[in-house]
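G., the chain you wanted modeled:
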Amino acid sequence: VTTSDLETTLVGTIQVDNVDKEGTVAAPAKLMLDVLKECSEMPLTLEVNELNYIPCGREARLMINIAICDDELLWLESTEQLLREYSESTGIPMKIHTFLSAYDLIEYVDDNEDFDLYILDVVMPEKTGIQVGTWLREADKRGLIIYLTTSKDFALDAYAVQPFHYLIKPVECESLFAVLDKAAAILTERVNKAICVKSKGGS
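Predicted structure as tokens:
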């Protein structure tokens, strides 16, 4: 929770991982909100904003934000095509970003936002996929990491960055789809809800 100009307004954001289908705030967040109200002499309002989800009937359906990084265009395009086929076959929407350079990916993430899922080549000329993964974890990025490579030799090194999976090129459609099923299940559980606490005149 952050505060700004306490004499006139109190603005805070609480990150919530547990919100039920009706949008009810999870108990820990509700408790924190109650504490804020007790500590503040100003009237507070509550807003719940839904992130990375799109409406789908009564429930919400995950939009997966994905980054693919591979210095070889053929592999990059092949992986992107497999992801689009998976999205079409499962109905899970995906926003796919492609990067031919590890530095381009790092620069983008540094200037923008974390991705839900990173699909990284291991052997790249500027920085290895493992070095990229190390940077992501040190930058406190929560995205799942899947490594695609032509060699099993780097599997032990990759373990240090807690990758979600490690697949050998050429990747079979069934193998990748099975991994994506598991990733989608985990990401669906990460229901990112932001609670904004505002004073009556706050912005």
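Residues 56 and 62 are 9 Å apart (CA to CA).

Shout if anything looks off.
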